[in-house]
Specification:
Helix content: 25-40%
Strand content: 15-25%
Number of helices: 18
Mean pLDDT: 86
Low-confidence stretches: 1-8, 21-25
Number of strands: 25
Largest sheet: 8 strands, mixed
Distance between the termini: 59 Å
Radius of gyration: 28 Å
């Protein structure tokens, strides 16, 4: 499928330094920066460009992480069988486990614990520009310095003996910065911009085989404003000629490069390229899945036992023992495995699961086509419908879920607002897994996700993927289904709903790539009940931030809102949570707000605030009209929008008119 970009393509930064015999004070260090797990998951994951103070890096693919994990005797895993099953649908049945990021906490600031761990990364782009003389060259023409073990932010590339723009040799090295132009294609390839090819318009320089190049940029940060100059023949060409549809025709075809994997696609790439600026928002979109961990059902328990059996025994013993339960028992006894305590029925079921033939490529493709993200929410919804067994009901050890009903039941004021269920989630565990990423179009915009999803391993069939665990607390709230269904039926025949539907279709078609135009926009449009629950979650987040002791950006939503389909009943609920990846939990501020009187006061004030906005009447009367394509109505950052860390839909599908009656839209609000 792929061939390496260079020999010995596996990164091992720590090992490379250890192999270097020079252990002097001037030795360069491996560490160049740090990032939180959530940032590495959603913003700076493998294949993304991450800006450091002096240059830009790209976290490498999972193959290069193996060298990092090999430095430890064992590899930690994240237990979430339901999420692992969903990952297998997209990445294949060979995915055996979820792993955290290679990191370990330090007991003190001077401790060296965890210095052998970290996410390997490549410098990308590898063309740099000297800020003093405008020299444009590969990083091999610059000196790399990173000598202070406590200041990785000082890692930098410098131009020694820089002549400056006036030809005067500088006594001190001058800093170099990344050349900020890249080429990308819809299939996820990313490449350096071919500056030599560009300035000479696709032919060789007539004055030198490897000419010196310069990038003159007098207005940094204002689009493609630079001019490229060949120092040998004197040709110049501005970068703004590569912009727009006319500029796209002047760019070279895609070479099929995956810099995070260090390889090119063997069969190349037929796509045209698109000029991108370093740091562009559509340069990298994460493809991820997440669940709130609930107690396991029997099928998940079998999957857990099967995975542990495979880890303990390995593939060779699986082939050797087959379904012979006695041999398995004997082996587990010899290994003192904790699986010895399981019944014969449980072990036999797990063995049978391991011996099942893997699905064919056609079956996997069909599973991917039919995958519905709602399938990850349904088990959570079903469990939250159960009544907890008393206060602080601990569901089970593995899930870590602890929940309780509000003291005194539901407030009559909430019942009058059609709230039928309230639950305090005292402890929860949320697990997020990475599938890959896309470029130019985000994952939900792509129908042919099998082609568009960029893999994180060279083979395209990873044996594991990255996951993060967040622990925290939350509040669950559910509305009366009969009231929601009646309101939804009324809303779907209004002119406002038709305007939102038409705007979504315009938005969808305007931003959809050529590789997947067969998707029906209606299949990606959210029902009216989703708009209702989503807008309610946003106004509650804004109000809860006033009392819970958390910032609004630290609160996030999980919406359970779908119509009945087949055997799946309808849902109308929401879960507002706060989680932290670097602690055992949070402070209890949200749980306290779930108390009978507290929640009624918070919800009443949230709905009261939704009645007015400082941007009214503009906000209250906002309705998308052709050719407008925004995906919200009476909602703005003053009244109903939330930070990107809080919202699961990037502030789409919001309208205050679906909560309360606003001037000019009487009769639409659910809570009137």
């Amino acid at each position: 499928m792929n061939e390496p970009l260079e020999t010995g393509g596996v990164l091992d930064p720590v090992g490379d330094l250890e192999a270097d015999g020079a252990q002097s004070a001037t030795k360069n260090r491996a560490k160049v920066g740090s990032s939180r797990p959530s940032s590495l998951l959603y913003t700076y994951g493998p294949g993304a460009t991450m800006d450091l103070p002096s240059f830009t890096i790209m976290p490498a693919g999972l193959d290069d992480w193996e060298r990092i994990w090999a430095r430890r005797g064992s590899v930690p895993t994240v237990h979430a069988p339901r999420l692992l099953d969903a990952v297998k649908v997209h990445l294949g049945p060979q995915v055996a486990e979820l792993r955290p990021f290679p990191w370990a906490p330090k007991p003190s600031s001077n401790s060296k614990e965890g210095d052998d761990l970290g996410v390997p990364a490549r410098v990308f782009p590898q063309w740099l520009r000297c800020t003093h003389c405008d020299m444009l060259a590969p990083l091999t023409r610059f000196a790399y310095r990173n000598t202070n073990p406590y200041r990785p932010d000082q890692a930098r590339f410098e131009h020694d003996k820089c002549p400056g723009r006036k030809g005067r040799i500088s006594k001190r090295p001058m800093p170099a910065v990344p050349a900020r132009y890249l080429l990308a294609c819809p299939d996820g390839h990313l490449d350096e911009f071919p500056y030599d090819w560009w300035v000479h318009e696709g032919v060789k320089c007539t004055a030198a085989e490897v000419p010196n190049m310069a990038m003159h940029d007098q207005s940094v940060g204002k689009g493609a404003s630079a001019t490229i100059e060949c120092g040998a023949c004197g040709l110049k060409r501005p970068m703004n000629q590569a912009q727009g549809e006319a500029g796209a025709a002047k760019l070279p075809r895609c070479r099929g490069r995956h810099p995070h994997l260090g390889l090119f696609d063997k069969d190349g790439c037929p796509n045209a390229t698109k000029l991108m600026l370093l740091g562009a928002s559509n340069l990298w979109f994460p493809a991820s899945l997440s669940i709130v961990v609930m107690p396991e059902v029997s099928a998940e328990s079998q999957e857990t036992v099967a995975a542990e059996l495979l880890r303990v025994a390995g593939l060779k013993r699986l082939e050797k023992f087959g379904s012979d339960l006695d041999k398995w028992r004997e082996y587990l006894d010899d290994e003192d495995s904790p699986l010895v305590g399981l019944s014969d029925t449980d072990i036999a079921a797990a063995i049978a699961r391991l011996l099942e033939p893997p699905p064919s490529e056609e079956e996997l493709a069909e599973q991917r086509r039919n995958f519905d993200p709602i399938s990850l929410l349904v088990p959570e919804w079903n469990f939250l419908l159960r009544d907890p067994l008393g206060k602080l009901h601990k569901a089970d050890e593995k899930s870590g879920l602890v929940l309780s009903p509000p003291l005194g039941g539901i407030h009559p004021g909430l019942s009058a607002k059609h709230v039928t269920r309230v639950m305090a989630i005292d402890k929860l565990r949320k697990v997020n897994a990475v599938l890959g990423f896309t470029r130019i179009d985000e994952m939900e915009r792509a129908n042919d996700i099998g082609q568009r999803l960029v893999h994180l391993s060279r083979s395209g069939r990873p044996k594991w993927t990255v996951a993060t665990e967040d622990r925290g607390e939350g509040i669950y709230l559910q509305l009366d289904e009969q009231a929601v269904a009646s309101w939804e039926t009324k809303i779907e025949v209004t002119d406002l709903w038709e305007a939102h539907r038409a705007a979504h279709e315009r938005n969808f078609l305007a931003r959809f790539s050529d590789t997947a135009k067969d998707v029906d926009p209606e299949s990606r449009f959210r029902p009216a009940r989703y708009w209702l629950m989503h807008t309610l979650a946003h106004v509650l987040i804004r109000e809860m931030a006033m009392y819970a002791g958390y910032s609004a950006a630290s609160l996030s939503e999980r919406i359970y809102a779908w119509k009945p389909e087949g055997e799946r009943p309808a849902a109308a609920g929401l879960l507002i949570v706060t989680t932290a990846s670097d602690s055992d939990g949070t402070l209890g501020g949200l749980v306290q707000l779930s108390a009978r009187d507290n929640l009624e006061r918070v919800m009443s004030r949230a709905l009261e605030r939704a009645l007015r906005c400082s941007s009214d009447p503009v906000c209250a009367h906002r309705i998308p009209k052709d050719p407008e394509e925004f995906l919200h109505g009476a909602a703005c950052h003053t009244c109903a929008m939330a930070s990107e860390t809080s919202c699961e839909r990037a502030n789409r599908f919001l309208d205050r008119r679906f909560l309360v009656d606003l001037p000019g839209s009487v009769g639409l609000g659910f809570f009137n």
